[in-house]
Write a structure and sequence with these properties.
The complex is a heterodimer of chains A (113) and B (112).
Chain A: E1 4-7, E2 10-13, E3 19-25, E4 31-38, E5 42-49, E6 56-57, E7 65-67, E8 73-78, E9 87-94, E10 103-104, E11 108-112
Parallel strand pairs in A: 2-11
Antiparallel strand pairs in A: 1-3, 3-8, 4-5, 4-9, 5-6, 7-8, 9-10, 9-11
Chain B: E1 4-7, E2 10-14, E3 19-25, E4 32-38, E5 45-51, E6 56-59, E7 62-67, E8 72-77, E9 86-92, E10 101-102, E11 106-111
Classes of the chains: A mainly beta (113), B mainly beta (112).
Chain lengths: 113, 112
């Protein structure tokens, strides 16, 4: 049981390049989330999904797109990377129901030059 | 929407001392309050949580207290150890909501 995994762990992009971050969970969780973490800003929600085929915007969605084609995977895309998107990205998942514990992945450190 | 304030942003203690981190929330309908610990280079992990029908919960050296009237909850760590050094996040959410609201985090440093 690997929990929540993220690929890649590190990435350096040039301004204008595109990339996709992959999040996978093997806990059969319904809900999945993408956060970014910047110094002094805590965790800010980018997008989330409440089930396969669904996505919704969070607090800071601009410049990002997401897809949830399979229940276990949640993809975060940057179509045209900007230096302001330099951050550490965390994926999280949680099961449906009363318990609201989120399980986080190890993070992806992205630098945009 | 919900707003969670967390204090202090940095806390420095000597090994063996106690540490207290406080959070306040704004939505009286919030009923679930988890605390996460984030070690350097890792993702946050749940360490303890409390629901609104309970005033206090303990797990070995850590405890969480909740005051619904004042809308604040606190994390207490006793007999701190260097491995307690990490960033701690509080969060609040209401039943039926998909999205918890996080505090901005507290960097706890335990000096040997």
């Amino acid at each position: 049981n690997a929990g929540v995994t993220q690929t890649p762990k590190f990435r350096v992009l040039k301004t204008g390049q595109s990339m996709t971050l992959l999040c996978a969970q093997d806990m059969n969780h319904e809900y999945m989330y993408w956060y970014r973490q910047d110094p002094g800003m805590g965790l800010r929600l980018i997008h989330y999904s409440v089930g396969e085929g669904t996505t919704a915007k969070g607090e800071v969605p601009d410049g990002y797109n997401v897809s949830r084609l399979k229940k276990q995977n949640f993809l975060l895309g940057l179509e045209s990377a900007a230096p302001s998107q330099t951050s550490v990205y965390f994926c999280a998942s949680r099961r449906e129901g009363r318990t609201d514990t989120q399980y986080f992945g190890p993070g992806t450190r992205l630098t945009v030059l | 929407g919900e707003n969670v304030e967390q204090h202090p942003s940095t806390l420095s203690v000597q090994e063996g001392d106690s540490a207290v981190i406080k959070c306040t929330y704004s939505d009286s309908a919030s009923n679930y309050f988890p605390w996460y610990k984030q070690e350097l280079g890792k993702g946050p992990q749940l360490i303890i949580d409390i629901r609104s029908n309970v005033g206090e919960k303990k797990d070995q050296r850590i405890a969480v207290t909740l005051n619904k009237t004042a809308k604040h909850f606190s994390l207490h760590i006793t007999e701190t150890q260097p491995e307690d050094s990490a960033v701690y996040f509080c969060a609040a959410s209401r039943g039926g909501s998909y999205i918890p609201t996080f505090g901005r985090g507290t960097s706890l440093i335990v000096h040997p």
